[in-house]
């Protein structure tokens, strides 16, 4: 009996975990398969304020008041965290989205985002779930690589801490290429490399990094995050004309002064992109020691929505952009347990073990005590308030 038949035979509610775009596709697949969905659930409290397809979205921590037992169809890519959360809530019946989505034809439906983005999001979720079920591989869903500290905006509450850089600079291209080479020698597969800054197009040699990632067989997708202020030169556009490339453009309204011409260039050159309004900003950009005890730091880490935003910076692998940039800025002490130096002179298999342990077994970081926290349920703040000069902070020598 296949998974779909097992789900249909159970006489308990079926819930989709994750109310994002993959959750929407999964709902459509369930309708096609004759599976009735009781509700969606999500850790983002803001998503619970409205229904999806006229079905309620329930805040995950409060599920037990609604359903004592249920089957969960997981649409979230971070399946490990989801499974652990469900087990902590007393739920043990779950299925990966691949059971329904692997052969589902997404183009028979319409969604409110470009179909290229839908395809990318679904493929990412399936790949992450498949690799969760085969843990012998060192597979990473997503890795951010910082290629510049420079940005065309100076946002007061930038979660990547760009507002603190007094003399922002581009990252050294040779160092970046060495880092990619060394990292790809160790990992088995990376679903997506996310090229970030600052504003990545501020680095005039961004195309060198893009070309290297395109040529890397272990990298399936390259996602470039940009703010709609810069249209790359024609000669630089060439490297973006590749099926591996996806641009995600954050629309900051008037601040994204070149959004329209950028989109026109991308459309003319048939380059995949997705533009979305700036949203979801929270008060997580302050760097301040809180004097939390270990249990409080574990709580901050457990609830963090960015703890799996793996980031490469200066030859080191970090769990989140806050940790990476706080270290770059020397705004926190040199917490050696908070990163993996990928240039450590150890055998490849030992480095694999070290990275796997760092990604799967850590329950908090030392830097968590310097962070306000970044929970899914935190109140949203106004995005992209601009400041005229860098924000002051205490520097550790």
List the SSEs and their pairings:
Layout: H1 3-9, E1 14-17, H2 21-33, E2 39-42, E3 57-59, E4 71-74, H3 79-88, E5 94-96, H4 98-101, H5 115-132, E6 139-146, H6 173-186, E7 189-196, H7 206-214, E8 219-226, H8 234-237, E9 245-251, H9 259-268, E10 273-277, H10 294-302, E11 311-313, E12 316-318, H11 321-328, E13 339-341, H12 348-360
Parallel strand pairs: 1-2, 1-4, 2-3, 4-5, 6-7, 6-11, 7-8, 8-9, 9-10
Antiparallel strand pairs: 11-12, 12-13
Helix pairs in contact: 6-7
| Secondary structure: helix percent | 25-40%
Mean pLDDT: 95
Shape: globular
Approximate strand percentage: 15-25%
Please, how many helices?
12
Tell me the radius of gyration.
21 Å
Looking across the biggest beta sheet, what order are the strands in?
Answer: 10-9-8-7-6-11-12-13
What structural class do helix, strand and pairing data support?
A: alpha/beta
Low-confidence stretches: none
Terminal Cα span: 62 Å
Q: How would you characterize the largest beta sheet?
A: 8 strands, mixed
N-to-C SSE string, H for helix and E for strand? HEHEEEHEHHEHEHEHEHEHEEHEH
Number of strands: 13
Q: What do you see in this structure?
A:
By secondary structure, this protein is α/β, with parallel strands linked by helices. Helix content is 30%, strand content 16%. The protein contains twelve helices and 13 strands. It has an eight-stranded mixed β-sheet, sandwiched between helices. A five-stranded parallel β-sheet has the order 3-2-1-4-5, sandwiched between helices. Helix 6 (173-186) packs parallel to helix 7. The longest helix is centred in the N-terminal third of the chain and has 18 residues, at 115-132. The protein is globular. The model has no long low-confidence stretch (mean pLDDT 95).
């Amino acid at each position: 009996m296949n998974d779909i038949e097992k789900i249909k035979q159970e006489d308990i509610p079926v819930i989709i975990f994750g109310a994002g775009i993959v959750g929407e596709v999964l709902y459509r697949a369930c309708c096609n398969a004759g599976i009735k969905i009781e509700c969606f659930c999500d850790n983002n409290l803001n998503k619970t304020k409205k229904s999806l397809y006229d079905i309620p979205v329930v805040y995950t921590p409060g599920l037990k008041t609604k359903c004592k037992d249920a089957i969960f169809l997981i649409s979230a890519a971070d399946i490990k965290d989801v499974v652990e959360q469900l087990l902590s809530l007393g739920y043990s019946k779950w299925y990966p989205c691949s059971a329904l989505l692997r052969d589902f034809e997404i183009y028979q439906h319409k969604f409110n985002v470009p179909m290229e983005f839908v395809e990318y999001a679904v493929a990412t979720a399936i790949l992450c779930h498949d690799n969760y079920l085969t843990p012998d591989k060192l597979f990473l869903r997503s890795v951010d690589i910082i290629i510049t500290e420079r940005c065309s905006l100076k946002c007061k509450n930038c979660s990547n801490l760009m507002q603190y850089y007094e003399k922002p600079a581009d990252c050294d291209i040779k160092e970046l290429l060495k880092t990619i080479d060394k990292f790809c020698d160790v990992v088995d597969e990376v679903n997506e490399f996310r090229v970030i800054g600052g504003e990545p197009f501020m680095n005039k040699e961004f195309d060198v990094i893009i070309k290297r990632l395109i040529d890397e067989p272990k990298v399936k997708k390259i996602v470039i995050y940009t703010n709609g202020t810069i249209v790359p030169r024609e000669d630089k556009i060439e490297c973006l004309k590749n099926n591996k490339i996806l641009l995600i453009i954050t629309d900051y309204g008037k601040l994204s002064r070149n959004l329209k011409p950028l989109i026109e260039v991308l459309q003319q050159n048939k380059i995949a992109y997705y533009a979305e309004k700036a949203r979801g900003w929270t008060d997580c950009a302050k760097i301040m020691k809180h004097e939390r005890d270990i249990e409080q730091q574990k709580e901050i880490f457990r609830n963090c929505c960015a703890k799996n935003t793996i980031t490469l910076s200066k030859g080191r692998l970090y769990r989140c952009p806050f940790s990476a940039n706080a270290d770059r800025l020397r705004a926190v002490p040199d917490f050696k347990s908070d990163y993996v130096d990928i240039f450590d002179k150890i055998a490849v298999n030992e480095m694999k073990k070290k990275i796997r342990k760092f990604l799967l077994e850590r329950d908090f970081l030392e830097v968590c005590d310097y962070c306000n926290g970044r929970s899914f349920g935190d109140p949203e703040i106004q995005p992209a308030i601009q400041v005229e000069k860098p924000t002051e902070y205490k520097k550790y020598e």
